[in-house]
Amino acid sequence: MSRRPAAHKSAGEGTAAFTVQNARLADVSFLTQQVLLGVKLAVFGSQLAHPFHLLQLVRQCCFGILGNYPVLRWFSGGRRFLVAKDGEATVGAMLVRWGRGAEKYRVLIEYLVVEAGRRRGGAGSGLVRHLIALRSRPEAILAACSPNAKGMMTMLGRLGFKRKRRAEATTDLVAPFLFELRLEASRTRDAAASARKPGGAKPPASPASAA
Ligand SMILES: CC(C)(COP(=O)(O)OP(=O)(O)OC[C@H]1O[C@@H](n2cnc3c(N)ncnc32)[C@H](O)[C@@H]1OP(=O)(O)O)[C@@H](O)C(=O)NCCC(=O)NCCS
Q1: Could you tell which of 96, 154, 177 is best to mutate to test the pocket of ligand 1, judged by most ligand atoms within 8 Å of the CB?
Q2: What spacing in Å lies between the alpha carbon of 148 and ligand 1's midpoint?
Q3: Has residue 197 been placed in a domain?
Q4: CA angle 58–2–86, rounded 5-degree value
Q5: N or C: which end of the chain has fewer CB atoms below 10 A?
Q6: Residue 123 within a domain
Q7: Does residue 204 belong to any structural domain of this protein?
Q8: Which CATH number fits the domain that encloses residue 174?
Q9: How many domains does the chain have?
Q10: How far is the CA of 145 from the centre of ligand 1 (A)?
């Protein structure tokens, strides 16, 4: 993924615009605080408030930051941590994890949260659209979601996600609903296919490394 931030015009009230950027260490506290607020509202599972899970979340965020740097991506466990910024202020955050092996073209949205005062401004869907627009676009984007997260479900539905029967363990967390957006094969797969032909272009090592 390009380090240049992608600009997304706000879709909600007002004229605020925001950019999607790679998260920095300071954004770890933004995500953990927003998750704790979400626990109070039951949009995130109460187990996340346990110190062990909070430490896990901090660890996952740190891996996600490593994953934002191509040279360090090997150590990241496939995680990426992205934020929506309004100027210097972080207004939304998304932690995702790329699958491995046969799942390597699928990406799971583990956490997506927008600051309460900035909701309905397009930041949440802008972060998801950023994933859809990656050069190594995944074939499927999955999102784990609690039944209480009505706004999240409406937003995912508007983006074309369909609810799946939860027949697979895709996340460390207990989130009863799983939504999926299927996308057509990306340019990465096209490049890989042409590289297999004699004289074709060399494909990137993996989708996560090309993103
Ligand atoms: C879910 C969440 C990330 C959405 O982010 P957002 O920036 O507010 O979403 P967007 O502005 O991109 O919304 C796009 C569309 O989704 C729908 N939508 C979003 N939130 C909604 C809500 N609370 N109620 C109804 N529809 C909603 C609307 O159709 C909206 O378009 P509109 O504003 O033009 O009507 C945000 O509400 C949030 O952080 N919620 C708390 C945390 C959470 O539930 N996370 C998911 C846990 S599983």
Answers
A1: 154
A2: 12
A3: no
A4: 65
A5: N
A6: yes
A7: no
A8: 3.40.630.30
A9: 1
A10: 12
1: in domain: no
**CA 16, CA 38: separation in Å to the nearest integer?**
24
By C-alpha distance, which of 76, 68, 149 is closest to 113?
149
Q: Confirm or reject: Cβ of 66 under 6 Å from ligand 1.
A: no
Please name the amino acid found at residue 43: V
**CA-based radius of gyration for the chain:** 17
Helices (H), 10-76: 26-40, 51-67
Q: Are 177 and 143 in contact (CB under 8 A)?
A: no
Q: What is the DSSP string of 147-207?
A: TT-HHHHHHHHHTT-EEE---S---SS--SEEEEEE----HHHHHHHHHHSTTPPPPPS-H
Tokens coding 3: 């380090």
Mutating to test ligand 1, I would choose from 94, 120, 152 the residue with most ligand atoms within 8 A of its C-beta, which is: 120
Q: What spacing in Å lies between the alpha carbon of 155 and ligand 1's midpoint?
A: 5
Q: pLDDT truncated to tens, each residue of the chain (211 aa)? A: 444 445 554 433 334 589 999 999 999 999 999 999 999 999 998 889 999 999 999 999 999 999 998 888 888 889 999 999 999 999 999 999 998 887 888 999 999 999 999 999 999 999 999 999 987 778 999 998 888 899 999 999 999 999 987 655 554 455 678 899 998 765 555 555 556 555 544 444 444 544 5
